[in-house]
Amino acid sequence: MAPFRLLCPPGWMPGPQTVEGLVGHLEATDGGALCIALDETPEGVVSARLDRTAAVSRASLLIQPDERFDDVLDEVFGVEWVDGAAFGFSRRPRLYPPRRRPVPEHERLARQREKELERLRERAAALRAEVAQLRREAAKGRRDTARWKEKAEHWRREAVRLAREQDRTVLDRAVRRVRNLTFPGR
Q1: Helix 69-76 crosses helix 53-62 at what angle (to 10 degrees)?
Q2: What is the Cα–Cα distance from 31 to 82, expressed in whole angstroms?
Q3: Torsion of CA 161, 165, 167, 170, to 10 degrees
């Protein structure tokens, strides 16, 4: 069970240090309850209340059928009135910021699918670009291969031609020597 109970009317709210200040005041005075005056209207006083639960339990054991509870509590432990503004009570704002409605499941799934679709589209575009680059490189490789084959064929033909010329030259020399041997002075 909680050692204290705070009752606050609708439309009012405690500040960040309000409860701590009220409990400290109740502990310092060793009272049973604090009645907090918040506002005075034509209908009466609007108030909040902080009760010490042990004092309320004890007073409920001592009350007689013809007595009022607050009178018994005041007689045994004490009931004190304090100003609510001094402890940080304030009216709640008239308008709270609008609450966001939860996103319906089908909309959430649609957004998720759209994100996934966009990611896949980007990936497909990147793959298309990569394929185009590889095709360009392959075409360049084919052109280079054809050019090198052509050069190789040219050099092969040149080598054959030179080899044949050299053979003729050697053959021509041999024929001249033989002629010189057989027909000197010619």
Answers
A1: 110
A2: 13
A3: -160
